[in-house]
Every structure is written in C-alpha cells, then in structure tokens.
Amino acid sequence: MAYKDLDDFIDLLWDFDDGRSRKHWEDRGYRVLYKRSVKIVETWCGQGEAGRFQERVKTIFPAVNWVVPYPNHTVFWQHTKQHQRMWLSVFHAQIQVEAAPGQPLEWTELLRAQSGQAWSIGRSKQGVLKGVPEDPKEIVFDIDKLKESVMRKWQRYQAQEAAHS
Prior knowledge:
The protein is 51% helix and 10% strand. The chain contains six helices and five strands; from the N terminus they run H-H-H-E-E-H-E-H-E-E-H.
C-alpha cells in the first residue's frame, strides 16, 4: 500500500471513525487506548477539545516516531517476499541538513519543526534522519512538573464544581 503523503499515513494509524479497513490491527493496544482517551476527553471536556486532542496527537507523532511499521488494510506489519519486516521512515529535510550522524537532537527543536509541517515520508536511503533524540531524563522531570500542574488544575476544577452544587 502506498500512501499519498504523511498525513494519509498518520490518518490510517490514528483515525477510527473513517470507514477505512484495518482488519487484523483495528484493535491494536495503542489504537484502543487512543480511542478511549478521545472518548474520555470528549465526555469531560467536549467535542471541540477531543478534536484538538486528536489533532495534537497526530501533529506530534512524526516528531517522535521516525521509523514505524508499514501497515496496510489487512496487516499492521507488512513483510517483503524475503520475509523481512517493512518499515516506513518519517523524514524532515531541515533537521536532516542541520544534524550530523548520531548528534543528539533536542525535543524542543523537534517539536518546533512541527510548526512548518515539513515532515514527510522518506522515499530514499537519504530520507532517514541521522540525528538521535536527546536523552529523555530531563523530559521525565518536566513530565513530573506537568503532572503536578494538571493535579492542581483538577483540584481547582473540583472545588469550583463543589461550590456550584
């Protein structure tokens, strides 16, 4: 299966109410969790927020997943005639020009690259990113801060709801 572009590929991986066939991988773990997450966001925050959540996941996906399985409508992971797994490379020309092989790339740089939407499917041997993501140790620290922030906001929300009841 060939994909028109990266957006078409990402839609195949993440969309669930589009009528496209995903026979043996419709219920893959990541898809089930994603669908449940969307429904939870929709229930608690509304359809608009659920749509924004879906778009954010699909926007961030190429920045953090550079080599992924090559699915089609029947199997999640296609194989060649020689029984080797097929992979799809996600590529960003600007980052490729700036990165030396093995050079750590900061997550902020990768996410900033999203604003230009220049991610594409690598269609040649040159279409593979040479850099590597930075060590996520610092990111875990930021995630802890984010969790604390979310908990504070949740507690404020609960207090407001209790005051209105």
